[in-house]
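Question (not urgent): is this output format expected?
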Amino acid sequence: MVNVRTQGRGMSAFALAAAVLLGAVGCSSTASNSAEKATAAAVSTTAPAGAQPTALGAGGPCRATMNHITDAGKKITADAKDKAKATADLQQISGQFTADAEQIKNPEAKAAAKQLGAVYQKLADSAKNNQSPDMKTLPGEVQSAVTALSKCSAAE
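Got this back:
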């Protein structure tokens, strides 16, 4: 069960960020429509059907960080059509993950939260500078971070 949730959240987090960037950097309308569809699909895979969201902080700092991943996706989706808001969201999300890392005791999960902060900062910088993100390394970085956080969360 953890692997399904981990994969869904990891891909959701990255797909949402990538969708925002595709729209923010002025891709063609076809690419933007595809990004919006990818965003909608990613949101639907964030949590299993019927799952109730856990209150932020419930279960410990790793659980809170996992919830922040879900919240980040929702926020990015809501502001995806406004480049300035999307860029600000990515920067805020980066800061949130960096702050979360300070609360986490588990060394692997702490490093994972810092990694997510760095990924979202890279995405914010790319959006701000109208550049495409590094699609070769970012998905793996997100997936490994979410996997470590998920393991930590399950132990809390």
